[in-house]
Design brief:
This protein is an alpha+beta fold and 192 residues long. It has one domain. It is built from 5 helices and 11 strands.
């Protein structure tokens, strides 16, 4: 009797294992909204701006790394508002860099403690401005080149097209621009 159960168990496990290895992973990658920040007509290229945004877990602060912020266009995408906080600090640490500090290494709750670090950097901010993005329907992507094929083993591919925005923190506007405008600005910055 035990022998029969053992064989049935082995057979069931084998069927499950074969089924799992034969299954093709179905995953999709959603396009992004890239927000490039400007102030005084100049592109911000340091880590001096924080963003307060809502994610599925609630409100969070994030660093606009090198003056840019990326939002995924998936099912949880919201047009905003995103509140940008102009701080007096020039080199706010990303979570990866913060985790390498003594404070980061000693933490037991890295996300909560990192949020505390960011809140302390938001104190005495030079300004705050909220921006709401247009929906994809209101402002379709300007660059609609075909998406690259998905990586091997993923048959879902990429949904949508990336959108690129010039976010003017002085006037509170988000204007969609072609990607080559961002590349042109980056080349000009690299020359300086």
């Amino acid at each position: 009797m035990n022998n029969i159960r053992r064989r049935q168990s082995v057979f069931t496990s084998l069927v499950i294992l074969i089924g799992m290895t034969a299954a093709i992973a179905h995953a999709v990658i959603f396009a992004s909204d890239a927000l490039y920040l400007y102030s005084g007509g100049m592109r911000i290229i340091d880590n001096s701006v924080l963003v307060l945004y809502t994610d599925p877990f609630g409100e969070s602060l994030g660093v606009c790394n090198k003056g840019a912020f990326w939002l995924r266009q998936g099912p949880t995408w919201k047009p905003g508002p995103c509140t940008f906080i102009l701080t007096i600090h020039r080199d706010i640490l990303t979570i990866e860099r913060w985790l390498q500090t003594p404070e980061g290494k000693a933490t037991e709750n890295s996300n909560q403690d990192y949020q505390g670090y960011l809140r302390s950097k938001a104190d005495n901010a030079r300004g705050r401005i909220s921006i709401t993005l247009p929906t994809v329907k209101e402002s379709p992507a300007l660059d609609r080149t075909s998406n690259r094929p998905p990586p091997r083993g993923i048959n879902g591919g990429k949904i949508g097209h990336n959108r690129y925005f010039r976010v003017d923190l002085d006037h509170g506007t988000a204007t969609q621009i072609p990607r080559d405008h961002i590349e042109r600005d980056e080349k000009a910055l690299n020359k300086n």
